[in-house]
From TrEMBL:
Keywords: Cytoplasm, Heme biosynthesis, Iron, Lyase, Metal-binding, Porphyrin biosynthesis. GO terms for cellular component: cytoplasm. Fe-coproporphyrin III binds at S52, Y121. It comes from Amycolatopsis eburnea. GO terms for molecular function: ferrochelatase activity; metal ion binding. This is Coproporphyrin III ferrochelatase. Belongs to the ferrochelatase family. Fe(2+) binds at H179, E267. It is found in: Cytoplasm. InterPro entries: Ferrochelatase (IPR001015), Ferrochelatase_C (IPR033644), Ferrochelatase_N (IPR033659). GO terms for biological process: heme biosynthetic process. Involved in coproporphyrin-dependent heme b biosynthesis. Catalyzes the insertion of ferrous iron into coproporphyrin III to form Fe-coproporphyrin III. It holds the Pfam family Ferrochelatase.
């Protein structure tokens, strides 16, 4: 049995000023986030006219994948669905069901494991199928790809280009960054028998692979975009704090690669292009931010390879000893207890 479509499953983002607060309320529903914090984050979006770049970036990437699918002779229409803003995944799945789709592939826009990076996409699939009902198609989620050679080479080229943009500044430090999560969530990531911390270990492995590809011997792995209360431990150090530490140790410049992200969405352009860049400028440090992989032609090629693993039995390509994971059916987790959501503390 073949596949009728590819569902491009992403986080979502506002596309105008009036969308911002309803979008943020969707993102934080049930988490008890104070309204003051929502208003603070809303200001970040309003700084860009209330429009997140994520939807356009996704549509551009989808168009590139459709072009490559057509060139490969694969008849697989690509449809867009989001967790937190229109087009919502439930609506997209309802349309696919009404069109007669029986079996679809799902590409989640995350390269890694962990609750937010993987298991929550399983929950999106399960919720959408429940909303549609008994006629919902079978949904097969594509695997994690942080160690795929096309992902690694695209990120590595971005790092090389960022270094080149700084010219002859000597002693520039390479820093890889990813979205921070609570320590408890990282500890719960992966199957329990693995001992946890799959998310942070995958980020570290991706950084190692990219650094080796780019010919960089020394580098750092740091975190960004934490949003929890101060009393809850999250993965550290934060990128801005790390820039302070690098300056204190005499480092003259920094190249930051957002290896944990596949596209230049708001957390990348605000936390790095604004806050991190401004801190570096305050210290008189050279600063360059490397491109994410999503706009590189190899990213579309990567997605098509992941698809062909299912449609043509293509042998999976990977560069790390981590087990291939994330490929699940109808929202089931990778394994019993894998990446269980951690109960959030009261604020």
């Amino acid at each position: 049995m073949g596949y009728d479509a590819l569902l491009w499953l992403s986080f979502g983002g506002p596309e105008g000023p009036d969308d911002v607060m309803p979008f943020l309320e969707n993102v934080t529903r049930g988490r008890g986030v104070p309204r003051e914090r929502l208003l603070e984050v809303a200001e970040h979006y309003q700084h860009f006219g209330g429009v997140s770049p994520i939807n356009k970036l996704n549509r551009d990437a989808m168009a590139a994948v459709e072009k490559q699918l057509a060139a490969a002779g694969i008849d697989l229409p690509v449809h867009f669905g989001n967790r937190n803003w229109h087009p919502m995944v439930e609506d997209t799945l309802a349309e696919l069901t009404a069109s007669g789709a029986k079996r679809i592939l799902v590409f989640p826009t995350s390269a890694y494991g962990g609750y937010s990076a993987c298991r929550q996409y399983d929950e999106d699939i399960e919720r959408a199928r429940a909303a549609v009902g008994a006629e919902a198609p079978e949904m097969v989620k594509l695997r994690q790809f942080f160690d795929h050679p096309l992902f690694v080479s695209a990120v590595a080229d971005g790092v090389r280009a960022a270094h080149a943009s700084l010219g002859d500044v000597d002693g520039v430090r390479t820093v890889f960054t990813a979205h921070s999560v609570p320590d408890s969530a990282d500890k719960a990531s992966g199957p329990p028998a693995e001992g946890g911390h799959r998310y942070s270990r995958q980020i570290a492995e991706a950084a190692r692979l990219v650094a080796a590809e780019a010919g960089i011997a020394e580098y750092d792995v740091v975190w960004q975009s934490r949003s929890g209360p101060p009393q809850v431990p999250w993965l550290e150090p934060d990128i801005v704090d790390h820039i302070d530490a690098l300056h204190a140790s005499g480092v003259p410049g920094v190249v930051v690669s957002p290896i944990g992200f596949v596209s230049d969405h708001l957390e990348v352009i605000w936390d790095l292009d604004n806050e991190a860049a401004e801190r570096a400028a305050e210290h008189g440090m050279a600063f360059a931010r490397a491109a994410t992989a999503g706009s590189d032609p190899r990213f579309a090629e990567l997605v098509v390879e992941l698809i062909r693993e299912h449609t043509h039995g293509l042998e999976p390509r990977k560069l790390s000893p981590f087990p291939a994971a994330g490929c699940t059916v109808n929202g089931a987790p990778c394994a019993i207890g894998c990446c269980e959501p951690v109960k959030r503390p009261a604020r």
